[in-house]
Amino acid sequence: MIYPIVAYGDPVLRRKAQNVEPGQIDLIKLSQDMFDTMYAAHGVGLACPQIGLSLRMFVVDGKPMDESMVGFKKVFVNPKILSETGESWAFEEGCLSIPGIREDVQRNPVIRMRYLDEHWKEHEEEFDDLRARIIQHEYDHIEGVLFTDYLSGFKKRILKGKLTGITRGKVDIDYKMRFPLKT
After folding, report:
1. What is the CATH number of the domain that holds 10?
2. Does 182 map to a domain?
3. Which of 1, 7, 69, 100 is most buried by its number of CB atoms within 10 A?
């Protein structure tokens, strides 16, 4: 099933998501639906809040972004970033919930995290470079943080009109979205 992507302005994107409890949902089905939704929208990551579910879960697949990330297709359930290290670096990020806006965001290049996969198996791993960045972006979603929160006040003022337009459904996209104030 392909879900509509929740657009900027929806309160679910600003809530800290709740842990997923065993038996609460079918993780295998939900993760497959999330991958299908993400691919249909041409993304490399998708968090549950972006499909309207306030759950601490996200999926990533870096291959569409960079062929060197073949095999970086993962499901993260109840993840916890244990550390972020290295000198932060800027990279242009975008978001399926904020279409048409891309801006440089500073992030640390190395993270260590603990998470469960879709089979409830626990992992503790280190990720670096673009893999770390994709994970940090999606992790922010389950914390109620958007990449635009990292922008300067000046940049936010410049983007205010575009962000208001997204909230109202004034975007040109080729994937299903759910808008909080469609007019």
Report:
1. 3.90.45.10
2. no
3. 7
> Given the structure tokens 């958007």, which residue do they identify?
146
- The residues that are catalytic are 138
Cβ atoms of 109 and 86 closer than 8 Å:
yes
Q: How would residue 183 be classed by pLDDT, with cut points 50, 70 and 90?
A: low
Query: What Cα–Cα distance (Å) separates residue 83 from each residue in 77, 89, 113, 127?
Result: 17, 16, 7, 11
Query: How many structural domains does the chain have?
Result: 1
Q: Beta 122-128 vs 177-178: how paired, if at all? A: unpaired
* Phi, psi at 110, each rounded to 5°: -135, 130
What pLDDT does 78 receive? 98
CA diameter of the chain: 46
112 sits in the region (left: phi over 0; alpha: psi -120 to 50; else beta) called beta
Which residues span the domain enclosing 39? 5-172
Q: Is residue 181 part of a domain?
A: no
